[in-house]
Structure formats: C-alpha cells, structure tokens
Design brief:
alpha/beta, globular
Length: 526
C-alpha cells in the first residue's frame, strides 16, 4: 500500500468503528462495565480477617509510627494517642476505631465528565492505572527508552479511549523535567488536556499543591470549582516502610486535603524486604501502615475522602528485587481488599504489574491471575492494571491496548452469572427440545448476543486456515494496528480560552503541534 492510500484506509477504518459503536447496546446492558460487584473470592476466612485486624491494631498501639510530623502530633494527642519513649506515635485501638468510624465510607470519584463518575461504594470494582515508570517500551524497536512528557500525554489520551480503563493515574514520569515544579505542573496539564475520566497525580512538595489546584480551577470553571467536583486525587505514600512517616509526603498530603483533593494513600511494603517474609505478617504490618495514613487524613479533616490503598508487594528472595506478577502478589492484594472491607472504607490494591519485559505470554499470565483475583475479591480500585511491564519500571502503549481486552475478561469474571427465571431458560429449553433442536436462532439467543457475551477485538478466534489467510498476525500486531488508529482520533479537553489562560500563568512545555492527532510520531506509522 502506498502512502497516498493510507488516509483513505484510515478514513474507512474510522467510519467502520463509528458504525460499530453506534450499534452497541446501551451502557447499562453491556456485557462488561464499571462497577460490577466482586467479593466472591475470599482468600481469608472471617476469623483470619479478624486476627489480621487485631494484630494490626496491636502494632499501632504498642509499636506506633516513627517521625510523626508536628501538625499530626498535636491533633493525635488531643484524640488520645501517645508518644512513647522512642518518640513514636502510638495509636490505641479505641482511637483508631473512632477514626475509622468517622472516615468517609461512601463517596464518588468524579470525572471531568459526569459519565465517567465512579461509584466506589460496597464491593464495586473498577480498573485503572498507576505507577511511576521511568521508561517506555518502544514497540517499534523492542527496546526501552526514558519516558518523556509527550509519552505521558500520549498515554493519557490513549487511556481516555479504552473502555475498561476506568480512570487514569499518571503511569510514567516525565524524566525530561528534573525541576519538581515544572514536573508537577506539566503532569497535571497532561491530565487536563487529554482525558475526561477521573485522574490521579503525584505532587512532589507541598508548595506545588496550590498551583496545581489553581490550574484545575481554570479547567473547572473558576476559583473553588475544582473542590466542588474534585476530578483528580493525590497519589501519595505518607508511610515509609517499616512504620515511619515521611515528612514531605505527609505535608503534601495535608496541603492536598486542605485544598479539597481526595487522597489515595498508598502503603507499599515489600514482603521479605521492608515487610516480614510470611505473607500474613506482611498483611499485618501493611494494614497497620495504611491505618496510620488514615489517621493522618482524618486528624487533618474528619471524613475527608481517602482510598485505603494497601498494596503489599513481594520480593524475589533470590535477588531482593520487587516482583509484581507473582502468585503471592495476587493472593496478598486480594487479601488486602478483603481486610479493607472489614473497615468499610473504599479500597485500592495493585494488580496487573507484569514482571515480563515484553507483551508476551508471561505478561499475559501474570496480568491475568493478579487482576482477576483482585477484581473477584471486590477491590474498589485496581491500580497498575494497564500497560505496566518490567516490575513497574516500564510502560507500553501496545500493552495498554492488550490490557483493555484482558480487563474486559476480568470484569466478565467479576460479573459472574445472573440466575433468574429468564436466564434459567426452562421455557426456551422445552421449545428447542420439541422444535429445531438447537438454540442458535432463538429470540433469546439473538437478544443476548451483545449483553451476555464479550467478544475480543484483538484476540483471534478464527480457524488456523482463516488466520493464515489474514497474514498470521499475533496479538501484538493486532494491538499495534488498533493503537495507531486510536492515537489519531482524540479530542482536546480544554477550551482555547482555558488553554490560553493556563499557558499564560504556568510554564506549559507541550507544544500545541505535539498535541495534534495528526502528529507525525503516529501518522507516519499508520
């Protein structure tokens, strides 16, 4: 095919996709969608959950947490906490239980558009992104390179179009921005410009919180408007394992709470390294550490929205390196979701973190087992579930596309089976037995084709002969084809006036030409 043929080919492909979307069922009738209820998988018995919680309360009461920031100490002592002889903040069980009782239990994570609002109550399950990768897997050369701001922008606008990625937290660091202020401002700008979904971002130092929120206010319609519908949460780790508050992260968290940002408070202890080697022991200490984050948030502002993100990681004890796709990681994070449910607080876990360096079979089984267990355990938010490779050191555009399909399968597992008089289908069975002898042409089969069943868009179900006639493509080739189409179809989520005001007030580095869907970095590859 010549270069002059490509625009026509792209136009026909776009028109085909538009027709397909127009013929899809309504969102409430789709075979998979955000917010299916999990909880069927329970790696712990009720008694074991109780023992883990009791042990975590004991750790906080008797060992406490080192290095509490001054603003936390006064509020905690007023609430009944104590400083022991080592200067560690000890939180007796009655204090923690009172803070848990007053914590936010039911809240919505808002999208820029209301159609992307996420109800994270109960056992409702959602998949999204996370991470702080410093490299990108380039599918054109099968090599890794440092991640840049343009990569972050492209990942954001890609995730915006993937149906099973329900929110977007920045997944790569713009390593071309060493200055913390420039990094935080430009990261936030990418989120504003490239997605209408709920987002999450990291902020390096507390002084940068207000400028970021000021930028969000411009996009939301004016001063104070972001706090009315906060569409971005702070992604932060106020605890440094084992059991120590991190000063900068705590101060940044406090500033974000004061400015109305929801908090995703992450604990990331690593079994065998910064947490005990027994998986149950890692669960105990990481639950305690996440409760210590909850204390910080709720002593700052009672009832402020916080995600209870206990992400117990695992070490490969042969090397000490972090692994993300292990069976132990899968079970631990599912158990973390189960324990968080005991407290009744919306929770997040980490799953989908392949250790493989390629979008290959290893990535498939690592991502599959971890995401399905997290979802069926009822985690409200499953972070890291899209695009991540190399134990969170890298992110991949083609893996994002593959993972969107994988997450659809995971959601279908979370949904399970609906058993009703209609789905038991006794009358249909009788009519077929005495009739045509097959179910293919029944009205029930035709009506449920698009609501009961999920069909792959890049996975191949053809016969070997048909597959060979198509050129024998593998899933990476199919993902790359879809990726190039998606990267040439995307809106800008800031008006010209908003973009101009933001660029006047802040050091925005993305050139408008780099934000065009017709950028040569994608069109020349189509």
């Amino acid at each position: 095919m010549t270069p002059s043929d490509r625009p026509n080919r792209r136009g026909r492909a776009r028109e085909t996709k538009r027709r397909e979307r127009a013929n899809r069922p309504e969102p409430a009738e789709m075979p998979v969608r955000p917010g299916f209820c999990g909880g069927a998988y329970r790696p712990l018995t009720d008694d074991e959950v109780t023992r883990v919680c009791d042990a975590a309360f004991d750790v906080l009461a008797h060992l406490g947490v080192a290095d509490p920031v001054p603003r936390l100490i006064d509020a905690a002592l007023d609430a009944g906490a104590e400083l022991n002889d080592a200067g560690r903040l000890c939180l007796p069980r009655p204090v923690m239980e009172a803070l848990i009782d007053g914590a936010a239990k039911n809240f919505t994570l808002y999208g820029r558009s209301p159609r992307h609002d996420l109800d994270i109550t109960g056992d409702r399950v959602h998949f999204g992104t996370g991470g702080a990768a410093i490299s990108v897997f380039d599918h054109r050369s099968d090599t890794y390179r440092p991640s840049t701001l343009i990569d972050l922008y492209d990942f954001t606008r890609l995730a915006d179009q993937l149906a099973n990625v329900h929110w977007f937290t920045r997944c790569v660091i713009a390593t071309d921005f060493p200055d913390p202020y420039d990094l935080d401002i430009n990261t936030a700008y990418c989120l504003l410009a490239a997605t209408a979904k709920h987002t999450g971002t990291a902020i390096t130092v507390p002084e940068n919180v207000k400028p970021v929120v000021d930028m969000f206010d411009i996009a939301a319609g004016g001063p104070g408007e972001f706090a009315r519908r906060p569409f971005c949460k702070l992604h932060t780790s106020p605890i440094v394992p084992p059991l120590r508050y991190g000063a900068d992260a705590c101060e940044t968290l406090i500033s974000a709470v004061e400015h109305g940002m929801p908090i995703n408070a992450i604990t990331a202890g690593q079994a065998g390294a910064t947490s005990p080697a027994p998986l149950a022991g890692t669960l105990v200490i990481t639950v305690a550490e996440t409760l210590a984050s909850l204390a910080l948030v709720n002593l700052t502002r009672p009832g402020h929205p916080m995600i209870f993100s206990n992400w117990p990681f695992v070490s490969d004890l042969r090397t000490g390196s972090m692994v993300g796709g292990s069976a132990e990681t899968a079970v631990l994070n599912a158990a973390a979701a189960q324990v968080a449910k005991r407290f009744g607080i919306p929770c997040g876990v980490a799953a989908g973190m392949a250790d493989s360096k390629l979008p290959d079979a290893q990535a498939g089984y690592e991502k599959g087992i971890t995401t399905v267990l997290a979802g069926t355990a009822g985690a409200n938010l499953v972070y890291e579930s899209s695009g991540m490779l190399a134990s969170l050191l890298g992110a991949s555009f083609e893996q994002f596309v593959i993972d969107d399909e994988l997450l659809g399968y995971a959601l279908r597992a979370v949904r399970g089976l609906e058993v009703t008089d209609e789905t038991l289908a006794l009358d249909v069975i009788e009519s077929v037995v005495y009739g045509e002898g097959h179910f293919l042409g029944t009205a029930q089969t035709l009506s449920m084709m698009e609501t009961e069943y999920l069909y792959p868009s890049i996975g191949d179900r053809s016969t070997p002969g048909e597959w060979e006639q198509k050129g024998a493509p593998d899933i990476r080739a199919m993902a790359q084809c879809q990726l190039h189409e998606l990267m040439q179809n995307h809106p800008m989520y800031l008006t010209a006036e908003q973009d101009s005001e933001i660029r006047d007030r802040f050091p925005i580095a993305l050139h408008p030409g780099d934000m065009s869907p017709d950028s040569p970095r994608w069109t020349e590859l189509a």
